[in-house]
Structures are given as structure tokens and as C-alpha cells.
Task: structure prediction
Amino acid sequence: MSKSYKITVIRGDGIGPEIVDEAIKVLDAVSHLHDFELQYDDALMGGIAYDITGEPLPKETIEKSKNCDAILFGAIGGEQWDSLPRELRPETGLLALRKALGVYANLRPVKVYDELINASTLKPEIIKGVDLVVVRELIGGLYFGEPKGREGDKAFNTMVYTVSEVRRIAHVAFQTAMKRGKKVCSVDKANVLDVSQLWRETVEEVAKEYPEVSLSHMYVDNTAMQLIRDPKQFDVILTGNIFGDILSDEASMLSGSIGLLPSASIGDKFGLYEPIHGSAPDIAGQGIANPIATISSASMMLRHALGEEDAADCIDWAISQSLKDGFRTKDMSQYDAKEVCSTSEIGSIIANYIGNCKK
Result:
């Protein structure tokens, strides 16, 4: 092997271990084909980390995550940990890891596969050809702003953004657009929020550095409507943390299944790659979870963190080919399924297709 990469693997809770196992299966196949080696190092986070160590994000996990080439992550959370104090809940561990790694940009691509055109609740003519990316600022805004808390009969959170925070996420969006359709739609609420006015002004300044990219602005409520009315108008959607959280989940359903969509959380040094869905504890251990979002996240990891573009293309092709040939997990079984597959079976099928992918 000419190259070797170290990957920290955080399987997490619920279906996390199942879907990560299938992503690793596919990664092993594609790394063998493309002559590089992946070394996996397991780490704990989430509910399982609390059960074992008493905290949702052990220091050892942070250290492992800072001393690797990329992090592959499954999902965290479950009802058994919902009664814990907020600082001990699984979600707190994930927020803390994102902050510790400085992964400020969350990339969430949304692509509608022709083979699953009927999986969406929208009309086929509305969603056919949809191919967009939500670029969400991830470690600022309302989720991290200070002060926050509760006093008597009131509770409060603070939305804060600085010019430097907006500039760096805007650069990611424009650089992403340069490789795609060269359109950025910046989403805010500048008609009522001072922080959104700052956001809009800063994005316009950054846009001057990318004269080839067309910039538009849209209020978040209108964007929510337009994603349903005419999603093909979007190429790259740039927005803040809470707006991006909501809009990317809405956009995910254009594809018909949240089990299809990956994400990359990147910063100046580190990258965290994970499906956008949750831990789905109600189906954990049943072998029916859809691992495609995690396998696609592994593809994004190869592309963005390791620079293995050809291997990433190979995974993307293998996923598409498996869908074309009618292989479906239970969540997609009603849509032109030739064969309904278990979690492990669909992972093996995609891994087997890798062998037919041209270098």
C-alpha cells in the first residue's frame, strides 16, 4: 500500500454501530481497489460513553479525534438518556466535540435519485433533477451564544455571530458553488434580526471575491416554502446554525428517505463525517436500518479529508448502481424494489459493486 490513513470511528448509540459497520465494509473494498490503507481506531461518544465512563464525551475521544486524518461517526441518543441533566446527555457530547474540533462548516448534499423519484411526497416533476447542498454554520449562533439559561419563569438563549465567523462559512459556500452550479442563496431573517443584517452584509463582502458566483438572499420562512415549491432553483444554500438545522432536515425529505443523506462537518484542521439522521433506537438491532447515508458520508470523507476523489466517485457509483438494480432497505421497499435487503445485505451489495468500478 502506498498510502495509509488513520480514521477515528465513533459508532455511538442505537443503529450507529450497524450502519458504521457497513460503511467500513465498503471503505475496505474501495481502499483495496485504489491501493491505500485505512487504519480504524474506535472511540466512545453519546449514551454508550456515559454508561461506560460517566460522561458523553470522554477526553480520550477528543484526543483520538485530534490525532487522525478523519472521523467517521454513526449516531447518538435514545430515550434511556433523556432524563439525564443536559450536560450529561448524548447530544451535549456531540456539540462539545464539534466545538473542540472547530468544525464550523456542515455540508449536507441533497440529491434525488431517479430510481426513487416516487419516494418523495412531492410530485416527480417538482423533484426530478434536484441536486443541492446546504452549507450550515455549525459552532456559532443560537446554540452556542451567551448568555443563556433560565431565571424564574423565563428562559433565554442568545444568537451571536461575528464578522469572522460569517466570513469563513461564506467562503466555504462560495468555494463549494465554484465546483457546482455557481449559485449561492444566503438565507437569513434580516428583516427582523440584527444578527442577520450583519450576516447579509458580510456575505455580500465575501461575494466580491467570487465574481463568477451568483449571490441571492432569501428569508428563512420563504426558503422553507420554496424548498417545497421549487427546490431545483437552489444550488448552494448558505445559512446559520439553527436555520440550517431546520432547512436541511426539510430538504432531506425531497429524496424520500432521510436514510440516504450524508453530511460532512469540516474546519481548518479536522473533519467529522456522519449521516444526518438520528440513532433510531426503535429499530436498533433489527437489521433494517438504511446504511446508505453513512456509506455516502464515508465517500465524503474520502473526498474532502483524504483527497481520494476516484475512490469517492467509486462509492457514489456503487450506491447509484445498487439503487438502479432495485436493491432496497425496508424504508424504501415500496419503491420499485427488486429485492428488500437487510442492513448488512445492502452494505455487502454496495461493497461488491465496488469491484466493478473502474479506477
